[in-house]
Amino acid sequence: MDLDLMITSFPKLLNATLITLKLLSVSLVLGLFLGLFFAILRLNKNPFINKFAYGYSYIFRGTPLLVQIFIIYFGLGQIESLRSSFLWVALKEPYWCAIIAFALNTGAYTSEILRSAFQTIKPGFIEAGKSLGIQSKIIFYKIQVPIAIRQSLPAYGNEIILMLKGTSLASTVTLMDLTGVAKYIISTTFKPVEVFIVAGGIYLFITFIIHNIIKYLERKYSY
Amino acid sequence: MELLAFGKTGWGDELFIATLMTIAVSITALLIGFIFALIFTPLKLSKNKFLNLIANCYTTVIRGVPELLVIYLFFFGGSGAVMFVASIFGYNDYIEINAFITGSFAIGIISGAYSTEVFRGAIQSIDKGQFEASKVLGLKKPIHFIKVIMPQMLRLAIPNLSNVWQITLKDTSLISVTGLVEIMRQSYIAAGSTRDPLFFYSFAAILYLLLTFLSMKLINQLEIKYSKGY
After folding, report:
1. Containing domain of residue A171, as a range?
2. To the nearest whole angstrom, how far is the Cα of B68 from the nearest Cα of chain A?
3. In CATH, what is the architecture of B12-226?
4. Which residue among B73, B176, B202 places its CB closest to the CB of A75?
5. Which among A5, A65, A195, B74 has most CB atoms closer than 10 A?
6. Does the pLDDT of residue B2 top 70, yes or no?
7. By three-state DSSP, how is residue B137 classified?
8. Which residue of A has its CA nearest to B57?
9. Using 50, 70 and 90 to split pLDDT, how confident is the model at A78?
């Protein structure tokens, strides 16, 4: 055990954690919107629209995140019309490519979680709203959405943790996140165990915090 | 389509072999995972607090740490660890472990943590009467486990194990960082030499989709087979 290395690498890894957290939070926020949007499409009665939403979630859940990042980062640059469009400002940066891939990926999982949450809402709640004469839009936003959010909290907590682990793939497109820096230190010092303990410890600590926040929210919104 | 031709002109045969490699690694990793699960599930269910703690540490650490980090640990630390063990037995030469073994071991340990949770859940949801009945009948422990618990556990575990299989299959793409030529690595090589990453990575995505689709079909068959009589 090389304690010195563990102590000296800790601040470097902690610094890189900031990038990991930034990637995680931005892609989760974007993914939540995407997920909600596609969950609503999934519930649409038009077969075209809901097949489209199903296809989106099937493709993104059926392929590895690594492939998705590589297609976006290496692949999209090949399309001439994309390179001359305004989107290129984002797509030439590995940071935004990673975020786009993460957001699309977590959006697919989130849409499944929210869809099943919407489908498990008891029809009685909606009927009660209807019989009180509430508009269906307001029923949706004031009754269905809050219940669905509560229902999906445990599964969504898992998804956040999976996404935290997913952000480690950003290191494959040259971003120096926690895993990227850990790999760099390992490959320069050849002390994998020590670095693994420190970096893994940081990941576990973040997981622990996320787990507790979700638990707290679950208790707060339980009925 | 020319790019996918078999033979020297295209990448078809290389990608085909790479796909077989992905399947081989996934299956090996899944089986290694089962071995880990068979060790850790009893520990998880045991009443001994210390054994419990060990099993909980394993599943918590593996499920909380990114797969890529675990793979780097094995990739950079694997041959070191083997050499250390070998040096105890008096063998001091350099040993290199091949990427297939490191990769499937790393993914196997990850998938083992998920399998452990699945088996634990399945055993816990078996009716208590079944345990009591085999006690009353005086069945020996191994027979009780193989003849009574296993078949029921498998039936309950198959739907969740199919998730574990999917996760394992997708995780094998990460082994490409160690240089093992599976779908991802082969696409990387092909994309580099033809300068057509969009095509090859999209093709890789299609291959993965195909694999997940076909394996789902197979698993559904299994599910039907094991739920006969229910």
Report:
1. 3-220
2. 7
3. Orthogonal Bundle (1.10)
4. B202
5. A195
6. no
7. coil
8. A204
9. confident
pLDDT tens figures, B33-81 = 999 999 999 899 888 999 999 999 999 999 899 999 999 998 888 877 8
> Span A168-181, mean pLDDT?
92
Nearest to B103 by CA among B130, B129, B67: B67
Contact B202/B27 with Cβ under 8 angstroms? no
Residue at token pair 């809901």: A50
Which of A74, A162, A205, A214 is the best substitution to test chain B (most B C-beta atoms within 10 A)?
A74
Chain B residue with minimum CA distance to A180: B69
pLDDT at A59: 94
Residue A175 in tokens = 């971003």
The answer to whether ipTM exceeds 0.95 is: no
What domain count does chain A have? Answer: 1
Min CA distance, A141 vs chain B (Å)?
32
Helix (H) or strand (E) holding B223: helix B197-226
Q: Which residues of B touch A75 (CB under 8 A)?
A: 197-199, 201-202
Best mutation site among A67, A158, A164 for testing chain B: the one with the most B CBs within 10 Å?
A: A67
Task: Give the distance from CA A32 to its chain's centroid.
Answer: 8
Cα-Cα-Cα-Cα torsion B112, A107, A158, A142, nearest 10 degrees, comes to: -150
- Return mean pLDDT, chain B: 89
Q: Where are the domains of chain B?
A: 12-226
Q: Do B184 and A65 touch (CB under 8 A)?
A: no
- pLDDT bin (cut points 50, 70, 90) of residue A223 is low
Asked if A100 contacts A88 with a C-beta cutoff of 8 angstroms, the reply is: no
> Quick one: which of A134, A104, A127, A117 has its CA closest to A33?
A104
Report pTM.
0.89
Distance from CA of B212 to the nearest CA of A (A): 6
For A50, the token pair is 């809901």
Local structure of B176: helix, strand or coil: helix
